[in-house]
Design a protein that fits this description.
There is one protein chain. This protein is an all-alpha fold. The protein has helices at residues 11-19, 22-41, 47-67, 76-94, 113-138, 141-151, 156-163, 167-187, 191-194. The longest helix has 26 residues, at 113-138.
Length: 195
Amino acid sequence: MTSNSPAHPDHRFIEALLANDDGLIREIYDRYSRETIQWIARNKGNADDARDIFQEALIAITLRARKRSFVLTCSFGAYFFLVVRGKWYNELRKRSQRMVTSQPWEGLIEKGEDIEKLAEETLLEHQREMLFQEKLRQLPERCRELLQLSWKGSKMEEVARQMGVTYAYARKKKSECIASLVASIQDAKEFIQLF
């Protein structure tokens, strides 16, 4: 969250995720894994579900921090819980189940529009990224290769050379591949919810 507010002391956990700091990441696990398992168990899940959701929440938060630098102005635990809760609600929706309880974790109750909005944006961005990656994987291999080379910042002349095609063909094919990717994303059943 970009803001004029000062960073919360827990912003160090965001920095740890970005720097892949094993010590602080271990601290995140030590602090929040037990509560995650207990909370998900109370809400139609099990320990394996909790471990998966825990990992997905950390990935979503890390991706959010990488894409847009933001300053965490609330406790990491409260933010993390809201992301876990949102991911678990989404999983239960996929399984066509309802929550039994929505009890928060002990000690992690922190109210505020900003934290709710940050968690919602984090979840939405992660879902969009997952849809994008899924549809990208479904493209033919040459399309994926062409797009990935061009997205790395290489000039189209260099991309064409690396792929062994003409510049004109590479430009035309890139346009076709992007159009195919966009159409595939727009045809996805979850597109309306995510965009």
